[in-house]
Task: inverse folding
């Protein structure tokens, strides 16, 4: 005979299962299954018409690791993502401190200013940057006016970086703000009182205590940047290949299209991400001790 | 205790916009003394302390620590340490790391840090908790860590901003005694901020009573309690009976005043007062005697009626009505243990109060 408590537990378990089923189904159908398919494809081959041929091989991985086109794309994307993340952090941290330290009634409006761009489609905003940076754009118009002359601002890697930083900055600022807003600035006074100068107090107290915000912001910025292809196409002028551009091309536009090779690149990208993020977590939580 | 000056405030003013938080304060705190800043909320205690620590700069005036004019010296270069009201312990560090922080900032050698941290933790009786995080400690333990973290640096002056405010009553009483004995042992000057008059009386060598940014009186606990120099201090420290009147003359050492309805009282005044001066007569409830009427009134006696009687264990607190407008509080110590109802005053009973002039003050503003 089950005790009342056991009966209760049984009923709770059924309820829990019912509640979780839709979510689990969703995850399996739209997350796990595609991942498995990509993983399987990455070991297949391709025919002349771009169809997947079920013939196991490691060729795709060998291609990625041996052809400079692909390796360079990885390095370029990783480097650009690191740069974007670091610059977003350097801009975002003081910005988040500024917002968190401004008078109560100003904080929400300031945060709204950071969020307002999201009300417009991302593509529209990137096109706006084209208008700003173009040869006959706003900045060049001004530079011409003051006699500096036109500069090639659009269609290069610098433009890509600007676009990426612009697009990702809010994802850095918001988690940083959340962490800094929770930080008790009396601790900085306590540190100063104990003989720490501003830099020491920041490094020993504020930085480790806001590390969760830094980690969250960095991850939020790094992941989408690594796989992006829109910004490098629209602002970078598609002159050099980033990871996202290559994968997109292999899946949609190559002649013939090559899903297995694209899948191999995608799988490797995921592995790179996982490894980098794990290293990052390790490094940052060690600092926190 | 030497007579040299640890801290001096010279005509210090602090304004925040329109608010004058500290208003022309002059103060000398002696080396090695336990000095309290006492006053109601918002009177400028924290602001004064923060200016000594260097977190705020005076709007005008100067702060001198051990003969050195502080000017704009930043907090990390001042020879003082602070115990914050909220403790402000570093939550991501262990107790030992918290305590070691100040020494690390001053580049103390590693083995000396270890020794002094241990010493400081022993001093506040926290040994064994080195590896705990602040959130794993009780309020009283956190309080001790904050103390150890400051004391480990051997500061010349320790500033404490209501350090016991967050503790419950019992722990608070314990920590008061402990803090006091600690101060005596380490011999460091303590500047202690509190709005609790009992706390200030218990712990301090000297007290400065503040109100609205001004210092009203500086003195030993006895001086502050027995000889308050104005109505505010008499009212803020302990309980007292106030009676307003005008001076009508002198009687030996005593100043005599008369109330509008013609009652006369005698008491001590700090300085001679001319006739007609408006004054406040003040006598503490425990200093009034209550007698059973037996014919003639004794000197300084007034006839009245007992209105209420509150037995609170150690004392009985009685209110006596003198006339339609005046009620005097009298506290009688229960020196005899008895259940006999007749030993205690009863409401409605006739009584005579006696206000000994040596126990009463005549205050003028
Ligand atoms: N940073 C500030 N900005 C504006 N006004 C302030 C600031 N700090 C203090 N004040 C004002 O100065 C006055 C004195 O404040 P202070 O904190 O020194 O009082 P306190 O005696 O410590 O009071 P409490 O017992 O409540 O802590 C108050 O009126 C307060 O509102
Ligand atoms: Mg205060």
Result:
């Amino acid at each position: 005979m089950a005790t009342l408590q056991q009966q209760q537990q049984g009923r709770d378990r059924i309820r829990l299962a019912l509640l979780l089923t839709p979510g689990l189904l969703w995850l399996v159908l739209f997350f796990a299954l595609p991942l498995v398919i990509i993983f399987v494809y990455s070991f297949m081959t391709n025919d002349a018409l771009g169809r997947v041929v079920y013939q196991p091989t490691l060729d795709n991985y060998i291609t990625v690791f041996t052809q400079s086109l692909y390796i360079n794309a990885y390095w370029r994307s990783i480097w650009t993502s690191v740069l974007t993340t670091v610059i977003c952090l350097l801009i975002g941290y003081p910005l988040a401190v500024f917002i968190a330290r401004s008078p109560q009634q100003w904080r929400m409006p300031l945060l709204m200013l950071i969020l307002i761009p999201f009300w417009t489609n991302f593509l529209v905003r990137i096109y706006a940057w084209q208008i700003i940076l173009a040869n006959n754009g706003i900045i060049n118009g001004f530079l011409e006016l003051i006699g500096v002359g036109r500069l090639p601002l659009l269609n290069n890697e610098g433009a890509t970086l600007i676009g990426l930083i612009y697009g990702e900055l809010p994802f850095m600022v918001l988690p940083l703000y959340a962490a800094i807003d929770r930080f008790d600035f009396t601790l900085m006074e306590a540190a100063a009182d104990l003989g720490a100068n501003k830099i020491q107090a920041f490094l020993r107290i504020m930085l480790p205590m806001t590390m969760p915000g830094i980690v969250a912001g960095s991850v939020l910025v790094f992941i989408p940047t690594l796989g992006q292809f829109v910004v490098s196409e629209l602002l970078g002028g598609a002159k050099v290949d980033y990871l996202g551009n290559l994968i997109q091309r292999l899946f949609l536009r190559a002649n013939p299209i090559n899903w297995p090779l694209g899948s191999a690149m995608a799988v490797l990208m995921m592995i790179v991400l996982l490894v980098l993020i794990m290293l990052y977590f390790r490094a940052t939580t060690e600092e926190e001790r | 205790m030497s007579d040299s000056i640890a801290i001096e405030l010279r005509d210090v003013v602090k304004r925040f916009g329109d608010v004058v938080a500290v208003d022309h304060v002059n103060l000398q705190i002696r080396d090695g003394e336990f000095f309290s800043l006492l006053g109601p909320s918002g009177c400028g205690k924290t602001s004064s302390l923060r200016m000594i620590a260097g977190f705020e700069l005076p709007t005008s005036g100067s702060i001198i620590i051990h003969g050195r004019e502080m000017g704009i010296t930043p907090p990390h270069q001042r020879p003082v340490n602070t115990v914050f009201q909220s403790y402000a312990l570093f939550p991501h560090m262990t107790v030992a790391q918290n305590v070691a922080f100040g020494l690390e900032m001053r580049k103390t050698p590693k083995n000396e840090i270890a020794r002094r941290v241990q010493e400081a933790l022993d001093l506040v009786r926290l040994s064994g908790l080195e590896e705990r995080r602040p959130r794993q400690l009780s309020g009283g333990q956190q309080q001790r860590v904050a103390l150890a973290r400051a004391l480990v640096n051997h500061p010349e002056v320790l500033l404490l901003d209501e350090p016991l405010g967050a503790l419950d009553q019992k722990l608070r009483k314990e920590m008061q005694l402990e803090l006091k004995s600690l101060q005596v042992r380490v011999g460091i000057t303590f500047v202690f901020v509190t709005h609790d008059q009992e706390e200030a009386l218990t712990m301090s060598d000297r007290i400065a009573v503040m109100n609205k940014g001004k210092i009203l009186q500086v003195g030993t606990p006895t001086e502050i309690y027995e000889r308050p120099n104005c109505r505010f201090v008499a009212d803020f420290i302990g309980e007292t009976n106030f009676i307003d009147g005008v001076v009508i003359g002198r009687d030996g050492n005593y100043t005599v005043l008369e109330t509008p309805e013609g009652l006369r009282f005698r008491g001590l005044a700090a300085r001679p007062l001319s006739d007609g001066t408006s004054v406040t007569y003040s006598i503490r409830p425990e200093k009034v005697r209550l007698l059973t009427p037996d014919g003639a009134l004794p000197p300084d006696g007034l006839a009245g009626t007992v209105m209420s009687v509150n037995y609170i264990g150690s004392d009985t607190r009685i209110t006596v009505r003198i006339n339609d407008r005046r009620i005097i509080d009298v506290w009688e110590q229960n020196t005899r243990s008895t259940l006999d109802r007749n030993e205690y005053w009863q409401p409605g009973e006739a009584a005579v109060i006696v206000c000994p002039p040596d126990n009463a003050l005549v205050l003028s503003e």
Q: What stands out?
A: Residues 65 and 92 of chain A are 36 Å apart (CA to CA). The pocket of adenosine-5'-triphosphate (ligand 1) is lined by residues B 16, 19, 21, 39, 41-47, 195 (CB under 6 Å). Chain A touches chain B through 19 residues (CB under 8 Å).
